[in-house]
Amino acid sequence: MRRYATDVSPLVEEFQQHFRDFAAIEKDIILFSSPFSVDPDDAPEHLQLELIELQCDAEYRSRHQQLPLVNFYRQLDEGRFQEIRTFAKKMLSLFGSTYLCEKTFSVMNITKSCVRTRLSDSHLRDVLRIKTTVLEPELDYILQSRSQYHPSH
């Protein structure tokens, strides 16, 4: 158990730093998730004019309520909202990597539960790779490539 404590300690410190980083970008997160409820004066200067234009557009307000955030920012007019689109891309990249990190940590905690305390590091690495990969095996192709494959009658 002590061996894992020394391995986990740097991870805990990294997570604490990560959450401090989130506090530092809290205003950006609010702007990203709710662009129609943010006072443009509170937004970064390079976004203020585009934010005012966005907030005055009833069509975009409606789309924001109807679409997932990713799709909403994707369909914004590139010519009119170039700065906001760039800002959204940066924010989306933060959440994508955060999600993957949280998913991996969660899988590791479940896998290394008290039931599987004897799991080796290499096996844990293999389990994490399988659980966090979104590839689907082509089972029919794999089975057909075997010489003894016989489909059911």
UniProtKB/TrEMBL annotation:
It comes from Hemibagrus guttatus. The lineage of its organism: Eukaryota, Metazoa, Chordata, Craniata, Vertebrata. This is HAT C-terminal dimerisation domain-containing protein.
